Prior knowledge:
Elements: E1 16-18, H1 20-25, E2 30-35, H2 47-60, E3 65-70, H3 75-86, E4 90-95, H4 105-112, E5 116-119, H5 125-138, E6 143-145, H6 153-167, E7 175-180, H7 184-196, E8 201-206, H8 211-228, E9 241-243, H9 256-269, H10 278-291, E10 299-304, H11 315-318
Parallel strand pairs: 2-10, 3-4, 3-6, 4-5, 7-8, 7-10, 8-9
Antiparallel strand pairs: 1-2
Helix pairs in contact: 2-3, 2-6, 3-4, 6-7, 6-8, 7-8, 9-10
The structure holds pyridoxal-5'-phosphate (PLP).
The site of pyridoxal-5'-phosphate has 20 residues, from helix 3, strand 7 and helix 7.
Amino acid sequence: MPIPHRVHMAHLPTAVEPLPRISKMFMGTELWIKRDDQTGLAFGGNKTRKLEFFIADAQQSKAGCIITRGALQSNHCRQTAAAAARFGLRCILILSGHQPREVQGNLLLDLLFGAQIVWAGNDNPEQTLQRVIDKEKSEGSNPYSIPMGGSNALGAYAYALAMEEFLGQNTPVDRIILATSSGGTQAGMILGAMLFGFEGIITGISVNEKAPALRRKVSALVREAAALMDKDINLQEDDIVIRDEFIGKGYAKVSELEIHAVRLFAAQEGILLDPVYTGRAAGGMLALIRSGAIGKDENILFWHTGGAPALFAYGDVILSEE
Ligand SMILES: Cc1ncc(COP(=O)(O)O)c(C=O)c1O
């Protein structure tokens, strides 16, 4: 299998930094952070690493446009729109639901990057996506479709390389914690850990899906990415660590857990989390350390996957009185 093509736009390697002030609050646990919120493109985030491969693949296949879908405040869509702009590709985003009255956060940026937005409205977003793809095909534009969250073999492959990058940064950690949703980021890290020798635990804090179903998805993605690299791996689905007790009322339903984490990281370390993904993951991490479930005498790395532009769409909630 030839090595997948790649364009270069991410600012790599992203920094690994200590979190001294938050660590101090948890005697015995040393916290670190990997700054994939600083991948450089359009306020950064984890999808930029994946997009280096999608854009190259789209160029290879002489695509006339890039199409993907996501939620109203999708970070994946914002980074896709920015990457498409950067490489002169037309971009169509299918966003769930109806156009809101206020244009804020990621949606504002999608529009600035010149993406065409198709609102799914009351329709099923996946069917809307398919309709748009069919229309583009019928017009001969050869669309390049990226799955939701950029989670396929190529996207996971990008994160196997990210793990290699992290291991080269020589930060001895016992555990990595990240927000996991469509699964490609965690799958890539797990594959990278197997290939490049990380023996710690990779704990995905699920943002929206129960652990058994997400474990199946992550496991399939690890296998597909390994096949892309022509690697044989020995993975037991049960070894994939996913915590699903922080989903609360569901996707993007912000609660005290996320608000507390967003405020704490900002006030103590000057670091911006987002209310949907990294706020939930960091809130989950802090809850697990507090309860003693993890962290005793551990070095823990919080892998920051970005998302801060969404903060501006949740200002009232984040600043609401407790
Ligand atoms: C900020 C942020 N963190 C984490 C994730 C989860 O990544 P994945 O979908 O690869 O599991 C996303 C996905 O949209 C995200 O936007």
